[in-house]
Write a structure and sequence with these properties.
about 210 residues, alpha+beta, three-stranded antiparallel beta sheet, two-stranded parallel sheet, about 25% helix
């Protein structure tokens, strides 16, 4: 099946070309554009569809079958809901907590999403600080996710939609001056994952 076939809207969207690979020096030189600086390691995730995942292939089996930036999710076989996720190089598990009657064998999907945002922030700030030679000893990022009523809700009965809110708590450790801390705070909001979640998102699904 061609990649453009089977999409619900029938348009067969054109898949973007993979970004060119840059050397470390070229990436770090892009200090004014954090998206470019981190594009080699933090691509957008695209959900291509739901497949029959009964085959529990190992990481080695799928290493050559996944395009860069793609992950594969399949039943882990260790619980009712636990899932194995692989990018062809690494493997990790997602599950639901014991409080929901499940095995708690890994983070929940929302915890993984929050972790992706936190990791992207930390990596982006670390790359920028190292490029500048600033004394950033450590960066700690905590991310929480909640759903709240929209601020512009004017329904007296409270029948309003909700919005997703990701709250980041960032701690910069090191002998940084105020100007450096202020600049790193700006950089933290410019990481690719932050831009993706804060921007317009479209999820395209096809069944194979």
């Amino acid at each position: 099946m061609e990649r453009g076939a089977g999409w619900r809207d029938g348009s067969g969207p054109t898949m973007p070309a993979s970004p060119a690979t840059h050397s470390s020096e070229q990436q770090l030189a892009e200090t004014t554009d954090c998206y470019t600086m981190t594009a080699a390691w933090c691509g957008r995730w695209r959900v291509l569809g739901l497949a029959d995942c009964s085959d529990s292939s190992s990481v080695e089996d799928v290493a050559g079958s996944l395009a860069p930036g793609t992950v594969r999710v399949s039943d882990a076989g260790t619980g009712a809901l636990s899932q194995t996720i692989t990018n062809g190089r690494d493997e990790w598990t997602a599950d639901e907590p014991a409080s929901h009657g499940e095995g708690d064998r890994g983070p929940t999907p929302y915890e993984l999403l929050s972790g992706s945002l936190g990791a992207c922030v930390a990596i982006t700030v670390r790359m920028y600080a190292d490029r500048k030679g600033w004394p950033l000893d450590n960066i700690i990022v905590e991310v929480s996710h909640v759903r709240v009523h929209a601020d512009d809700c004017d329904d007296p009965d409270g029948n309003c939609g909700k919005v997703d809110v990701f709250r980041k708590l960032v701690e910069l450790q090191g002998d940084l001056d105020e100007a450096q801390r202020a600049r790193l705070a700006q950089i933290a909001d410019r990481c690719p994952a932050h831009r993706t979640l804060a921007g317009s998102i479209r999820i395209e699904t096809r069944f194979v």
